[in-house]
Every structure is written in structure tokens, then in C-alpha cells.
């Protein structure tokens, strides 16, 4: 159940990501509302901040101005990535939510089925959706690659975000259609 929950958390973030690209709804207000809700429920993030940083990533991929890139090993890159996105107010929101939920939910269950899966999903998103696709040198303007996996593995690992080159080539394509771009 921890891994199922982790995958669902990852999906919540991917939903917010798709909202950042306007692919949830043709109605901009509905699209943004879903994006705000998904990213706030994911980890108390603020959509506008993530939106700006994500589009900065698309404009300045693989450069010093790219908030998703660090030319270091996995752990240094991961911690730089997290420091670019996590804020003190977000940590306060999550701490308040945890302490309020503790009133009704056993703390062991909170740790096992909320905290652990949400933390693991940050690794899942980073590893399969950022680190592997952007690691190393690439022969394209997006400095990205596509992970050589089958569609089922691509879905399970990160909702097709291993098809990262395709995402950069077609950012307005929602996650559930990225496999078509790969073909």
C-alpha cells in the first residue's frame, strides 16, 4: 500500500504539472484551480511559485538558470532541486496538517501511509522525471533523453515522464498521451 500511495502522490504532482502546461481543461480558470488544488494537496506547495520555476526550467534547460538542473551527482542534485522548491511556509503548512490529522488518525498510519509515500514520491519524481532524463550530455536542444523502457514500466515509474525528450518537444501534450509522441 505504501507503493500504491507513493504512485498516487506522484500522480497528484503530475496532474499539477499538466495544469502548468494548460492540458487539464480548456477553461483556464478550471485548469489553474485543479493545478492549485493538486499541488497544495501534494505537499502544501503554491502553484504560482511552481509554475514560474517550471517554465524557467523549460526556457533555460540544463543551464545555471534552470532550477531543475545541477551538474552534480544524484544526492547533491536532489538536494539542490528540493531547496529550489521547498519553502519554510510549505513546511509549516505540512507540519500543521500533520498535527491536525494526528487528532483523528493514528500517528503510525500517518507516518506509514502519508509521510513515507509522499517523501518517496519526491524521489520517484526526481529520479525518473528529472535526474535520469537530464543526466549527462545530450545531442538535442532540450538536453534530455527518453528512458528506454516499455510503456507499462514508463507509466509505473513516473506517468510517462521518462519520455522526457518528448515532453520538452511537446509540452502541451498531457502525460497520458506522451507515449504517442515516443512512437
TrEMBL record:
Signal peptide residues on this chain, from the entry's feature table: none
Lineage: superkingdom: Bacteria
Membrane spanning residue stretches: 33-52, 82-105, 111-132
Pfam annotation, one family: FA_desaturase
UniProt-listed InterPro entries: FA_desaturase_dom (IPR005804)
Keywords: Membrane, Transmembrane, Transmembrane helix
Stretches assigned to the Fatty acid desaturase domain: 7-89, 98-182
Protein name: Fatty acid desaturase
Lineage summary: Bacteria, Pseudomonadati, Bacteroidota, Sphingobacteriia, Sphingobacteriales
Amino acid at each position: 500500500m505504501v507503493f500504491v500511495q507513493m504512485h498516487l502522490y506522484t500522480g497528484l504532482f503530475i496532474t499539477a504539472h499538466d495544469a502548468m502546461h494548460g492540458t487539464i481543461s480548456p477553461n483556464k480558470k478550471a485548469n489553474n484551480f485543479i493545478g492549485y488544488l493538486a499541488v497544495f494537496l501534494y505537499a502544501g506547495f503554491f502553484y504560482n511559485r511552481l509554475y514560474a520555476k517550471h517554465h524557467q526550467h523549460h526556457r533555460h534547460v540544463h543551464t545555471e538558470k534552470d532550477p531543475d538542473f545541477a551538474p552534480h551527482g544524484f544526492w547533491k542534485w536532489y538536494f539542490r532541486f528540493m531547496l529550489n522548491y521547498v519553502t519554510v511556509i510549505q513546511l509549516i503548512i505540512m507540519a500543521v496538517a500533520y498535527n491536525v490529522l494526528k487528532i483523528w488518525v493514528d500517528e503510525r498510519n500517518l507516518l506509514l501511509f502519508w509521510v513515507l509515500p509522499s517523501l518517496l514520491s519526491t524521489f520517484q519524481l526526481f529520479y525518473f522525471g528529472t535526474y535520469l532524463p537530464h543526466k549527462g550530455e545530450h545531442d538535442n536542444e532540450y538536453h534530455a533523453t527518453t528512458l528506454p523502457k516499455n510503456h507499462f514500466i514508463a507509466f509505473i515509474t513516473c506517468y510517462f515522464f521518462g519520455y522526457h525528450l518528448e515532453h520538452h518537444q511537446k509540452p502541451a501534450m498531457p502525460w497520458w498521451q506522451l507515449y504517442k509522441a515516443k512512437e
